[in-house]
Design a protein that fits this description.
The chain is α+β, with helices and mostly antiparallel strands and 152 residues long. Helices cover 43% and strands 18% of the residues.
Length: 152
Amino acid sequence: MVMIEALRKVIKRMHYPLEVMLVCVRWYAACPLSLRHIEEMMAERGVVVDHATFHRWSIKILPVLAAAFRPQKRPVGLSWRMDETYVKVGGQWKYLCRAVDRTGATIDFLLRAHRGLAAALLRARHRTARRAGDDHQRQERCQHGSHRGNAR
C-alpha cells in the first residue's frame, strides 16, 4: 500500500493509468526488449504511447520500486562460494556460474553461451558487495543475461 502511494506521488502529473505504466516499466526492466518493441506491443493492445514516454516513466518509477522492494530482499551471510559448470539447455551447452551461500541457496547466477569474462565479473561483483559497508549483509539479485545487450 505504501508503494502505491509513493508511485502515485511520483506520477501525479502523468496522464496514463498506473497499471499501463507499471506494465511497460516491468517489461522494460525484466525483459530484453527495446523501448520501440514495447511501443509496438502496447499499440497492439490499443494503447498508443511514444517510446520516449516509456523511458521517462522508467526513470521516475524504477527508483521507487527499488526502494520499496529493498526491504524484501533476503539477507546473505559472509560465507559464499562460486559454483561453475556447463549445462545443456535446449540441446546446446551453456556456461552456468552461481554464487551459493553456506546453506546451498543460490544468491546470484549467470547463464551465458560462453565463459569468457562472465565468471570474473560475477566474482568481482560479489567481492565488492561484501566490502561495501552498509550493504555488507545484503546483495542485490541481478538477473544476468536478461539485460539488454547481454542476451545470447
